[in-house]
Structure formats: C-alpha cells, structure tokens
Amino acid sequence: MEENTRISSSNAVGLITEALREIVPDVGLRVRRTFAFDENDMTPVEFVHSLAASFTNGFNGYNTRGVGYMLVPMTTVFAPMSPGEACAANVLQRRLAFMETCLKYTHQFYREAIARELETAPLRDVDDGAPALVKRISELCLQLLDEEAMREALSLFWEESQHEAATRSRTIHELTSERLVWTVGSDRFSLTERGLGWSKSGQDWFDATHIEGSVHKLRFMPQTQLGAQLAEAARGTKQSPVLTVVG
After folding, report:
1. DSSP string, the chain
2. What is the mean pLDDT of residues 100-115?
3. Whole-model pTM?
C-alpha cells in the first residue's frame, strides 16, 4: 500500500510529445513559419522532404532509417507559437490548412501510440521514474513508424484540407494576438500559445490533454526532478518551461 501511494501519473499527450522530442529535434515552430511563407506551393510531404534535406547530417541517427523526418510535422502541433504570428493575410488560409493537416496527422499517430500502450500496460510494472517512462514511450513510437503509411496519411489529410467543401466552409471566428479559432464544417480548430486543439461536434477531440476525445494518464514512480515536474503538471499546477505541453 505504501508503494502505491508513491505512484504518480501524467497526461499521455505530454508524455508522448516529450518522447517524440527524444527522437527528433523540436523544429515545430520553424516548420510552421517556413511552410506558411513558402512561395513554391509545396505539399506537406514535399516540404518535409525539403526540410530534411536541409540538414546535411540528418536530424539524428534515426534519420538514416528514412523515417525520423516524418515525425517533424508532429512537433508543430504543440510548439509554442503566438496566434498573432499566423495573421499574415496572404498566407492565412494556407497556414490554416497546413495546421489542420498536421493536427489530424499527429492525432492519428498519438491514437495508435496510446492504443499500443494500453495493450501492453497490464503486462509490465510501473516505470521507475519519468525519464524511464519517456524513454519507453520513445521506443514504442519508433516501433509504430511506417514511412509509407505516414506519407500516405499526411497526403490524405492535406488533400482533405484542399477539397472544395473544406475551403468553402472554412471560417475564422476569432483572430487576436492570443487566440485563433476557425471551423471547417463541424470541426473546430484553435491555436493558442499551448498549441493546436481540435474539437468535433462540440467535443474536445485532440489537444494538450485529449486523444480521440478521451483523457489518458500514464503512471510512473516520481523519483527524479523530471518526475516531480510531471507530477506537478498532472495536479494542474504551473508547468515547467521544459514541459510546456503537459496538461
């Protein structure tokens, strides 16, 4: 009983995001800004290829497997960004479509990651500290990587954002220096300094705390500073700058 009282938990979205940052550098802000002002009208897949090629030494060791760079669009979702930076009129519609694409693409991967985690969680003990949990989630994410499938998903979501029905119904409801809100049909998207959020038919679907409309918590033994920070964030207290996405 005493041991169980020491077990803490943190939101799965923040943990998966930290795990992805163990694999690829946090270049999300650069991706969003650069793509929005791209004058070559590249698709997201073409843009990711172009970005990867700009790093002559690769992002890291995983890039040699030809899959690491496909994670880059995911880092855009929770990269801190002022909504005011999305206000350039000449690129706003294009930026909105790009953010919708990255958000749906990332949600699909996070959904698969949490599904795999829930399948294996009953078979193992609680992770010894948050770093161990993040490392294990990183390994799980690597197991889920499928370059061809991810490329197809990214292309599919981009095509959806360019469909006439989407472009015709895309409506901006709020645009300030702190908040950007727009809708496409029954989907509602928002951008704040915490990142992107997606609601479906009035239900929070994917954001800093939800995956497919549900809140998932992952358990660990808070024996390190990172563990303490995650536990603090899980209690709803002020977040550490290092863990800006943990709800």
Report:
1. -HHHHT-EEEEHHHHHHHHHHHHS---HHHHHHHHHT-SS---HHHHHHHHHHH-TT-SSGGGGGT-GGGGHHHHTTSS---GGGG--TTTHHHHHHHHHHHHHHHHHHHHHHHHHHHHHGGGSPPBSSHHHHHHHHHHHHHHH--HHHHHHHHHHHHHHHHSHHHHHH-EEEEE-SS-EEEEETTEEEEEETTEEEEEETTEEEESSS-BTTB--EEEE---SHHHHHHHHHHTT-PPPGGGTT--
2. 93
3. 0.80
Helix (H, G, I), strand (E, B) or coil at 207: coil
pLDDT confidence band for 194 (50 / 70 / 90): confident
* pLDDT at 225 exceeding the cut of 90: no
Tokens of 200: 């479906």
Give the C-alpha separation, 164 to 155, whole Å.
16
* One-letter-per-residue 3-state SS of 95-146: HHHHHHHHHHHHHHHHHHHHHHHHHHHHHCCCECCHHHHHHHHHHHHHHHCC
- Structure confidence at residue 112 (pLDDT): 93
Q: Which two tokens stand for residue 174?
A: 């709020």
Token couple for 152: 């197809």
Note the pLDDT tens digit of each residue in 39-90.
667 788 887 777 666 654 555 555 545 566 678 788 888 887 777 666 665 5
